[in-house]
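Hi support team,

I'm filing this because I wasn't sure whether my run with cytidine-5'-monophosphate finished correctly. The job status page said complete, but I'd like someone to confirm that the output block is well-formed before I use it downstream. Pasting the exact inputs I used:
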Amino acid sequence: MNERACIIAIDGPAGAGKSTVAKHLAKHFGFLNLETGAMYRAFALKALESGVDLDDAAALEQLSRETSITLEPVEGGNRVLLDGVEVTARIRDADVTQGASRVSVHPPIRVWMVGLQRALGRNRRVVMEGRDIGTVVFPNADLKFFLDASPEARSQRRYEQVSPMDGAGTGTGTGAQVHAAIAKELRERDARDRNRAESPLRAAPDAIVIDSTNMSLNEVLTSIEDQVRDHLHLPVVNEEL
Ligand code: C5P
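And here is everything the job wrote out:
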């Protein structure tokens, strides 16, 4: 088997299905799966716990010098350590989710993260998922996907993933209230991720754009898997879908 280094970049807005696709591809072709969003989330948690203002770029840059973030690919996702302490579950809470999209607008924080991410991917076979992987982190990635879907489809999918009882950390309430809270949270993150000055969310010119609004998960996975096989001629190491 050809074991040369290989980077598959998967970018797109929140709720477009990037994580599911990245996990599947990594398993199917025997690659590591790295979720870069988890790194921004871990840093946001550090800022929240340290009481640092999420809009203060200089204070955040200082904080970043005292922060260690480790991403460990494990079965079914990434284990995340912040200063040696596992925070894998905590970083999915709503306050951290919004915090991540706030700390990620600051250029010094992005420069730091991009350096960490390049080091993680170097000389490896990796499916890396995020917002700027194909545009900034690995502009020469072997293959790039930009996974998109309408805001309505994305918030509907998020809603279906969570139990109305816990509201995915958005607070308790009726189904309609939870749905509205998820849609609002996605809209806010979309606006921040797309409109920031530094590395805004956009498709790389050479990315394969997939709009999954009217596609089933299986259709998306099959389409992406076929493209990877056609473009990269990779051997399949795990047939199960
Ligand atoms: O992908 P995830 O939802 O975990 O990302 C959380 C936030 O981190 C995003 O809303 C975005 O603001 C930021 N992010 C980023 N660049 C990446 C990955 C995530 O700016 N490569």
